[in-house]
């Protein structure tokens, strides 16, 4: 949750508390029934909050290719997201993985959680390489991804690495982007053409 989400949640919680106290004060004669109804409404309220908080994870699982729009010329088009970055969900070994498009990264970089999800055990890797990131030097382990797909486009034997640090989102680097015939950004749209 972002700071805005926390502030919004706090506002809703205070608003709910105000309404609840007002309701209980107005129905003192039927207090047991009122408490039961308030408990039901609280469960509904917190259920909505939980679904809202997990919306990104649910969208990734339910609609792994929702951000991909295939144009008439065969390009894959991605919309810039609210944080100013482009993201693409690729199928790696048939598992959907969300990548941040990073033209500053050389290779595809998996974080440890995504590596586990696609069948690579990060605890057994040899972190023999060094990656220079915004957070300093980080150990990196070379791996090969045997099956990477975006839409109808498949790539095999893609060189990648697993990051030893705390990488929030896996990265789509230039070695993968260069497998496409065209890569361009026009305003808030990113185009990848096979």
UniProtKB/TrEMBL annotation:
CDD domains: retropepsin_like_bacteria
Family annotation (SUPFAM superfamilies): Acid proteases
Membrane-spanning segments: 6-26, 38-54
Keyword Transmembrane carried by entry: yes
Family matches, as Gene3D superfamilies: Acid Proteases
GO biological process: proteolysis
Alphabetically ordered keywords of this record: Hydrolase, Membrane, Protease, Transmembrane, Transmembrane helix
An example molecular function term from Gene Ontology annotations: peptidase activity
The name this protein goes by in its record: Aspartyl protease
Taxonomy of the source species: Bacteria, Pseudomonadati, Pseudomonadota, Alphaproteobacteria, Rhodobacterales
